[in-house]
Records
---
Amino acid sequence: MGRHDGAATAPRPPWYVRAARAALRWLGRVVVGALAGGMVLGATLWAGTSWESARALGAAAAVLTVVATALAATLPLVPGPPTTTRDDGAGTRRDPSPDDR
């Protein structure tokens, strides 16, 4: 029943543990962004784009990737599919039998 259920909550970790976890999260995002930027830089250079344009596109891809991963971390988890059984009654989704036409 909410906060009155009597269950003990876990104590808040120390500040340095929380800071380390946040730093690791952001480090992972920056690494993914750097990889994406490097791939765009290499691909555009390979395609014959000038160095300045390739560098700008790679930097834009890196920044955009970091921002996208940070925004994606704010989304709620996707709920799993609802479970149904044969005893659920009318109106529930059921697997079609091979005889349905």
Note: The chain has a mean pLDDT of 85.
---
Amino acid sequence: MSWETTNREKSACGCDLGYVLRETRSDDWNRTEENATLHCIECQTNFVAYSYDVHRSGMTESIQRWVRKDDYEVFERTKREGDTIEQKARTQLTEYLRTQYLDRWMSIFEEVPRNKKAVWTKLKQINMINISYSNYCKRTSDLEEDIVSYVSTYYVQPLFKVLIISSEPMIESINALPNEARQRHNEARVAMMKRSFS
């Protein structure tokens, strides 16, 4: 099961003073891999390799491009900022939901005995979970904590269906910040890709 080079291709680099060498290799199992190396001192100073996956015809393919270092730094910074904003928004949203709706949610479980079978049955009945009873037992150690956990960011839509809440302006304003951060990150990626080469 040896790998052999099936294709070698040279293409221009970003400054046209050097080149990118792409080698495709395959093995007896019909697996292929592509390796790209940058042969340009100028571009090696100003560019970094950036890889991402695309899905085509049910297959995942990794693509590599050379992007400007300063563009990549902006791209990474906006990602970190977006992740931080998103985490803060999740925390803020969960706190808000528990302040506003936890009592209503807990009232649904007033008559439910505090054993796993009864809680799982109630959660299943109101369409909050779709896991089996055995999986529920494996993942649940504290029943009260588990019941409260459904009043959180991750369950907003099913929670609102159960509590019959159509819209909540505060939630929309909390979600606006992560959406804006994602937009900035996407814009940084578009700008980075425009000045890249493969």
Note: The first helix runs from residue 41 to 46.
---
Amino acid sequence: MHVTYLLGAKGNLLYDGKHEMAGRFQTYGQHSFIVDLVGAMTDAGHKVCLVTDDLDGFPLTRVMGRAENVTVTDEVPAVTDLILVDEASDRMLERFPRHVPAVRFVHHAGRRPSDYMVERCRWLVCMTENALDRQATMVPADRLVLIRQGVDLARFSPPRERTAGRGSRPRVLVHCRMDSGRERVLNSVMEHLDREELLVYAVGDGPGFWELSDRFGDELILINHVPCLSVPNLLAEMDVVISLGRGAMEAMATGIPTICAGYGYAGVVNEENIGPLLTYNLTGAYCERDPRRVMEDVHSALAADRRGVRRLAEEHLSIGVFADRVFDLVAPGTAR
């Protein structure tokens, strides 16, 4: 199948970057979704054409252009069997023949799509129960479907035991943008991490990141940019990750015990709480565990079975399963 992945990058904060440098900072979560989904589709034998309105400004243009069975362009491809709409404008979709089926991904739970998008797209794919519930107040229910997103389980290193000789201090990575309401929880986490017992890395951006630099810069290892294709290399060196959303998913796929912290604090992700946490995309929203207990959770995470963490990711966080379900919506039996 020839799949067109339609992406509006021009003037779109989701892909231009939250602060500076045309997306070269921590917008990796959205970029990672694209990389993983396109990879899953090509692995299944499909040809993918990524169509964007800003070839020069979109950070993944060169990366995706090197991938096998992927082309990147700003033109309408000659052959299209399915259009996947990701943060694209009405005008971009209007360029395609109406008989070609279109599926839209809902990245913002509370954002109403245009009337044209609702009419043109057969399905709007919500990735959380929260998004499904909120979209149902704005969009006809027969246009909505819930398919939880996932990560590329092959792109991340398999779980491995911590080995001797890596230093006496466990490595803890705090991986998150420090803006948009996450600052309170993450500041509390950083304040209560024992920075003498642990070797703490902080990766992110946003105003809160620079405040961390001012407050704790001599006690942390601060990293302001990690290309999304390099995230597996970073994760492979960590003993515990504190993150949310795709950052948490990617850590779990690598088999790293993960503490969910962002809009709220949930503690260690485990078999009992992963289902409820996925309702809000592993963001910690509405979780009320006290972030001052972070060292207690770090010690629990250090004692956790990394193989069990990986199994949770395999059961709940597979981009391959996501891609298969998307294809089954429009062409049952063509997923793989």
Note: Residues 28-43 form the longest helix (16 residues).
